[in-house]
Amino acid sequence: MKSIKDIANKANVSPGTVDRVIHNRGGVSEKTKQRILKIIKDYDFKINPIASSLALKKRYKIATLIPKLVDSNGFWEAPKNGIEKAAEDIKNYGVTIQNHGFDQFDVNTFITAFNDVIKSTPDAVLIAPVFKKQTQKLVLQLEKINIPYIFINIEIEGLKNLSFIGQSSFKGGYLAAKMTDLLLKKKLAVSIIKIRKNSINYHGIEQRILGFKSYFKDVGSPIHIKAITIDSINDPNSVDRTLTKHLADNPSTEAFFIPSSKTSKIAKHLSESNIKGIHLIGFDTTSENILYLKKDVINILISQKPFQQGYQGIKILFEYIVLKKTPKPFHYSPIEIVVKENIDFLNTDLS
Q1: Is the dihedral of CA 45, 46, 47, 48 positive or negative?
Q2: pLDDT score of 1
Q3: Distance between CA atoms of residues 255 and 332, nearest Å
Q4: Distance between CA 113 and CA 100 in Å, rounded?
Q5: Is-contact 66 117, C-beta < 8 A?
Q6: Chain centroid offset of residue 287 CA
Q7: Tens digits of residue pLDDT in 86-135
Q8: Res 233 pLDDT > 50
């Protein structure tokens, strides 16, 4: 295993000249090119990309585009921690990470942040494609200038992302429904609580809902499923008004399914209102969700290893742009069922 510098010394040229020949970038005379290629062949040189990168003092920049943290208990804290840990691990190889954030409830901030990513001219991009329609349009800009990108957390089919890292949202929703079915006694009604208007553009959420409904359809269940939307999930008054009215209008409701990390907001209302007999099933082991899980207000959480999504995403892009290693197209996160009895024995994704 040799570096570009070793080959350059043997050929009596600069490391930059060898780099241009290896990557077929032009700017080298045919005679010099053939001499370098002959040395590589005769001495059976195998290029060490890391050593070569360091010898050339080459620098790489990976941009990230994930939601900003609204509070320290939010889901996106874990992927952010994973990104930061990976950045620390690879910083000595000339790779820097530039983070760009957006409001996951405001598509305009996503577009603005994406444009900032383009202006920063990164070598690769890690994206949480929260907004499906806008992502489908915007990634065309990356493809036009040959900037590789991967998706984490939310899978969107039909695009040219190098890889996807995250859970199958459909299967996660399907499993959540199966667990919900086991909790129900009367088999009457379940409500799906959405926290976003026009959720069809929030691909991961919509796939979870589709998976949830598909389970009950597949088993031929007579359970009535109703969807409601809470416009301001972080406003306790909005949560209280919506849920109080819904339960008054739908007294046969046995369970709430929350296809996001905001299950604790619903749990808080049920706990403070002393409402019993409503099962709660949601996603992600945030600290607030764990708190209500331990209090028996939340029954089941589906975990998806978000720390690993951030960490693995950066490492895959590093290996691709520096080591020239092509990743697998899919890296699916495990779908873990978390209950009160096993929460203390699991990695809770926050570190």
Answers
A1: negative
A2: 43
A3: 28
A4: 6
A5: no
A6: 19
A7: 999 988 888 999 999 999 889 999 999 999 999 999 999 999 999 999 99
A8: yes
pLDDT band at 55 (very low <50, low <70, confident <90, very high): low
Paired with 279 in beta bridges are 255
Q: Which amino acid is at 139?
A: V
Torsion over CA: 219, 221, 223, 224 (sign):
positive
b (16+ CB within 10 A) / e for 305-333: bbbbbbbbbbbbbbebbbeeeebeeebeb
Question: Cα torsion at 83, 84, 85, 88 (round to 10°)?
Answer: 120
pLDDT of residue 150: 97
Q: Which residue has the tokens 């409503």?
A: 278
**Tens of pLDDT along 240-262?**
999 999 999 999 999 999 999 99
CA–centroid distance for 231 within its chain: 24
Residue 46, Cβ density class (10 Å: 0-12 exposed, 13-18 middle, ≥19 buried)? exposed
In the Cβ-directed half-sphere of 283, how many Cα atoms lie within 13 Å?
32
- Cα–Cα distance for residue pair 321/116, rounded to 1 Å: 21
Q: Strand (E) positions, 233-339?
A: 253-257, 279-283, 300-303, 330-332, 336-338
DSSP notation for 317-331: HHHHHTS-PPPPSEE
Of 63-77, 230-244, 255-269, 291-305, the least confident: 63-77
Cα radius of gyration rounded to whole Å, the chain:
25
Tell me the DSSP string of 188-222.
-EEEEEE-STTGGG-HHHHHHHHHHHHHHHHTT--
Answer yes or no: are the C-beta atoms of 93 and 322 closer than 8 Å.
Answer: yes
* DSSP per-residue string spanning 272-287: HTT--S-EEEEE---H
Tell whether the model's pLDDT for residue 193 goes beyond 90.
yes
- Work out the percent of the chain whose per-residue pLDDT is above 70: 90
